[in-house]
């Protein structure tokens, strides 16, 4: 029969494993200084393979140019928020936050998304 100590050790180990498995980094997006309605320059806090944004009311994501943590998108027409962000991780998985960058975004501001990586 298992002792109370053994049972406690098993429970603590399981809780620790579950806790580590659920930990992640909050994905943030820094809208760089110099961004304007026709150019959005982003710096992410995590190295990713691809970043796309979708303006409110649009069905299509627009691909940002860049790599790693620096991404830019330019448009002839003003880009209107709020923006959904879809990112592709280095391992091939992807994440989406439908309201990552607010409608009244400001250059040189950091936005914490709902994405955990």
Automatic annotation (TrEMBL):
Q: Which UniProt keywords apply?
A: Signal
A Pfam family annotated for this UniProt entry: Expansin_C
Kindly give the InterPro entries that the UniProt entry links to this protein.
Expansin_CBD
Signal peptide (UniProt feature, chain positions): 1-23
> What region holds the Expansin-like CBD domain?
47-113
Q: What is this protein called?
A: Expansin-like CBD domain-containing protein
User: Per the UniProt entry, what species is this protein from, by scientific name?
Assistant: Zizania palustris (Northern wild rice)
């Amino acid at each position: 029969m298992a002792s109370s100590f053994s049972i406690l050790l098993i429970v603590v180990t399981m809780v620790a494993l579950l806790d580590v498995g659920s930990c992640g980094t909050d994905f943030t997006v820094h809208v760089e200084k110099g961004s304007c309605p026709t150019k959005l320059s982003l710096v992410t806090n995590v190295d990713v393979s691809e970043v796309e944004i979708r303006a409110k009311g649009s069905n299509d994501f627009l691909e940002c140019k860049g790599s790693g943590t620096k991404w830019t998108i330019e448009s002839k027409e003003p880009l209107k928020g709020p923006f959904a962000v879809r990112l592709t991780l280095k391992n091939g998985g992807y994440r989406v936050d439908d309201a990552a960058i607010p409608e009244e975004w400001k250059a040189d501001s950091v936005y914490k998304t709902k994405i955990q990586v």
